[in-house]
Amino acid sequence: MHIQFVGSGDAFGSGGRFNTCFHVVSGELNFLVDCGASSLIAMKRLGIDPNAIDLIVLTHYHADHCGGVPFFILNAQFVAKRTRPLTIAGPPPIKEWFPRQMETAFAGSAHSAKKFEVSLIELAPERPWLFRNAEIRSVRVSHGLPPESYHGYRISIDGKVLAFSGDTEWTDSLIELGRDADLFVSEAYVYDRPVQMHLAYRQLLEKLALIRPKRLIITHMSDDMLSRGDAIAHEKARDGLIVEI
Fold first, then answer.
1. Is residue 35 part of a domain?
2. In the structure, what pLDDT confidence band is assigned to residue 193 with cuts at 50, 70 and 90?
3. DSSP label at 122?
4. Tens of pLDDT along 103-149?
5. Are 184 and 163 in contact, with CB atoms under 8 Å apart?
6. What is the pLDDT of residue 244?
7. What is the phi/psi pair of residue 100, to 5°?
8. Is 90 exceeded by the pLDDT of residue 13?
9. Residue 40, H or E segment
10. What does the alpha-carbon distance between residue 1 and residue 230 come to, in Å, rounded to a whole number?
């Protein structure tokens, strides 16, 4: 499984980083996890072909994680001349969110004619979802209201497991989400003082023995975290970082 951090930043551009977006390729599967507002720019800078992407999996509907979707669609429609279908999957209420987001970004775009089909799939924690050679298990995390609209994901492909916390406070659901994963990508917005809706790095360290990931990468870091240097004992994400698992 080939994973590239297209964007590793928070909502506020800390460290000059792009918004959250991961590009994953494994065999026949080519997809994004999250597509924050700056993601199309970052993808083009990295030379990632948007037309090769068949699936976008969204953790939640804050713009630093999903705000790039309208521009991905508009680029596909008017610039890249996409014809292959695109699937967008995420927590409820994805079918209400999508046209609203399109209209907010570019009036009239929600219902404009396209030469490619867009399928919207609502994911639920009790129903693992299969897409080609991937099994995607969603886990409810704690990042605001309504609670059902915030997911982390455990994605299994060809015997490998990628887990992503999404944005969240500490919740015990992270233990099962990341347990023994080949790669666990976890947010740690601050170092030692938890803030509402986000995780502190030292909180994560206290629970790490229960999670036991084979590899941990920290992402979605604030300026507080980025200034800590060697105090962060684990790998830190950066824009463009490539990981093979």
1. yes
2. confident
3. E
4. 999 999 988 889 999 999 999 998 999 999 999 999 999 999 999 99
5. yes
6. 97
7. -65, -45
8. yes
9. helix 39-46
10. 28
- The count of domains in the chain is 1
Cα–Cα distance for residue pair 12/78, rounded to 1 Å? 29
The whole model's pTM is what?
A: 0.96
Q: Report the distance separating Cα 221 and Cα 17, nearest Å.
A: 10
- Classify strands 29-33 and 86-90 as parallel, antiparallel or unpaired: unpaired
Structural domain span for residue 184: 2-233
- How far lies 108's CA from each of 98, 105, 116, 127, in Å? 13, 9, 17, 34
Residue 21 sits in a domain of what CATH number? 3.60.15.10
> And the tokens for 70?
């309208």
Query: In one letter, which amino acid is 135?
Result: E
Class of residue 111 by CB neighbours under 10 A (exposed 0-12, middle 13-18, buried 19+): exposed
Q: Residue type for 132, please?
A: R
Number of H helices, E strands in the chain: 7, 14
Terminal C-alpha separation, the chain: 5
Is residue 110 within 8 Å of residue 102, measured between CB atoms?
A: yes
**pLDDT value, residue 22:** 98
- 243 found inside a domain: no
User: Does any domain span residue 177?
Assistant: yes
Residue in 65, 15, 75 with CA at minimum distance from that of residue 41: 75
17 lies in some domain:
yes
Residues 130/29, Cβ–Cβ less than 8 Å: no
Quick one: average pLDDT of 7-24? Answer: 98
Residue 200 per-residue DSSP state = B
